[in-house]
Amino acid sequence: MTPLAERIASLIEASGPIGVADYMMLCLFDPAYGYYTTHEPFGADGDFTTAPEISQMFGELVGIWIFRAWQSAGKPSPVTIAEIGPGRGTLMKDVLRTLGRLDPALARNAQFALVETSPRLTDIQKRTLHGTDVQIAWHTGTETLPPAPLILVGNELFDALPIRQYVKTASGWRERVIGLDKDGKLAFMAGPGAPDMTLLPPDAPGAQDGAIVELAPARTALMETVAHRLAEHGGAALFIDYGHAEPGLGDTLQALRRHEYDDVLAHPGEADLTAHVDFSALATAARSQGLTASVTAQGDFLLRMGLLERAGALGANGNDALREKLTGEVERLAGPSATGGMGELFEVLEVVSSLKGQ
Ligand code: SAH
What we know:
Layout: H1 3-15, E1 18-19, H2 20-29, H3 35-38, H4 51-54, H5 56-72, E2 80-84, H6 90-102, H7 104-109, E3 111-115, H8 119-129, E4 136-139, E5 150-155, E6 164-169, E7 172-180, E8 186-190, E9 212-215, H9 217-233, E10 235-244, E11 254-257, E12 260-262, E13 272-274, E14 277-278, H10 279-287, E15 292-297, H11 298-305, H12 307-316, H13 320-334, E16 346-352
Parallel strand pairs: 2-3, 2-5, 3-4, 5-10, 10-14
Antiparallel strand pairs: 1-7, 6-7, 6-9, 7-8, 10-16, 11-12, 11-13, 15-16
Helix pairs in contact: 5-6, 9-10, 12-13
The structure holds S-adenosyl-L-homocysteine (SAH).
């Protein structure tokens, strides 16, 4: 058992089974043993590789989106350009370089902000962005961002926020919880709590026993907070994650440890835990604040932002090895799942306020 597994087991012994959301929170953010607190998740030595770490083109194209979103918002000044959940700070580095080329005055005058909860990752971001000649402020939540128009981006943020699961039993839908089996090991079971049936997907009523659905109140709450701010001050937000555009049944909670899938309960604190993002729930939360929201597949989004042209420009003065590398990156970022690409599995949510600034 990992040290965190022992702690969770004694917690359950003392006060009963815990929900999936609590389990995710402990596994990811426990101050002593949490995965994000203690591990370096990203890159070849970590457990997973994210799009900004795969290719500089990803951040560059997000930079182009930011520039266009700022133009469409009426070129507001002052404006805050922010990223939430920046990991190693790689995306922001590529964004800053791109904005500096597209519009040096915007890069000089915008207030840049990074929103990050992990002190360890904040330090890494400061190192990555050290030496860039713009002012960057760090925040631990969106509440403290300046009261100004906001252009916000977030890659693989929502999948790290906790979900709740519900399981269909002979006596109806019950919250899925984690308790102890007869050997004292962590095990999934059905708890006493029932979900608000109006929140379940349309295929829930006909589901077989054992079927699972997921709800993510923490994700909806964050989306509503961001949307409320955009509705009040103007601006736009872009969220990229893996997930599904339509709600539905299914257990998507997964653990990744050293680049391999792991049993979700096997190594608490030593594996990354994520669950697919329900983009329709996020879009609904944004629309409830009067914003426009649209969902596109990552591949289509990147092509629309000029992925092929950017790859062509970068490869034009290089050798064949560079062009081959760029082709590989394009395939990985925008290609279909069948060939290992992220283009279909990852979705992009664009949220836009109709307020025009100046
Ligand atoms: N965007 C990066 C990292 C993704 S991992 C990339 O694509 O490589 C998720 C990131 O979100 C981590 O930096 C994690 O510490 C941060 N995070 C998790 N919950 C958060 C929250 N509620 N607010 C801000 N950041 C959060």
